[in-house]
Amino acid sequence: MPTTIHLWTPGLFDFKGGIQTYSSFLLEGLQAVLPGATLRVFTLHDAPATLPTVSPASVSYHTTGHVPARLRTAAFAAQTSRAALSDRPDLIITTHVNLTPVAHALKRWANLPYWGVAHGFEAWEVAKPQVRRGMAGADKILSVSGFTCDRIRQSQALQNLGILPNTFDSHRFQVAPKPLHLLKRYGLRPEQPVILTVNRLAAGEPFHSYDQILAALPTIQTALPQVHYLIVGKGDDRPRLERLIADRHLQDCVTLAGFVADEELPDHYALCDVFAMPSQLEGFGIVYLEAMACGRPVLAGLDGGQDALKQGELGALVDPEDVAAIADHLVQILTGTYSNPLMYQPQALRQRAIEAFGQQAFQRCLAAHLSEQIVPGMARQNQADQLRPA
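and the corresponding structure tokens:
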């Protein structure tokens, strides 16, 4: 009898944040690893008009995005519960821990197995008791990084933890020269050193990596007077950020690019000489992988970025609260004196990132987890078929 998987996600099509991107790759991975399976995808927020009009016969999409916001969560719970009790899927996978309470209830009522995916701070410190119970009752909580896994273990003492790291589209992100149209758009010269951060500008977050780079910028300018800092992202923190830049008289060397469409992201990575996001709050950070796939050196903090950079093998790690260290690391990277030679070998850096975190690596890891949950040997055989040379 064919395997049936239900995939529950906040969304796939209306908005492309980190969780949505991960969910899309997970869906692709399930189709690759379990080609004979029936996959029913339930999205909480997507508008019906954004759902695919054409999809494989084995994949169907359902959404509650048309329901008024105040009723949407209840509608989603009703929709997924009805479908699960009717189908009795072999596995329910929720790509946000806030969706686990409904899956937990279904496991108690109907003995339906479920997994949850934990990305970052939303799973580190969980206040809602129903979400804590949902995480504890899962057959498995898949963390996107060892860092997130450790934080959950410390805060909740869970034993049902595994790791399924982020992946990325290596075809979209390639090594390329600095794009002339972006040099013109931002008034930059080809030889001018450029630092890039791609991050949401969220006022409510207690720590902002771009604040730390702005604080380090005067020191960096001492060594590299022409350095320019480009921040890509939108959000409600922009007014405060604009005031901060003006107060520090950094208007001439900082550009707030705002929202950049997905198709323009590869060119923005190609524009920079270093991608820097020394964060405290990243569960992993797909942007690190995208930058490395473009052959650009990366500076990350001591959070999930450690996993993305393989504990410093692929890039530079720094204490995100140490402004002097951030300045020193960025000067070293931009002057070619940082101690990791891989960061100056664009094609080799790209290849290492693909080997560690490309979609084939993601699907191998997914297959290993599935082989423990569903029909024994099924995922392992699919994995072997997938990796067999043509």
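(Above: one complete record from the training split.) The radius of gyration is 22 Å.
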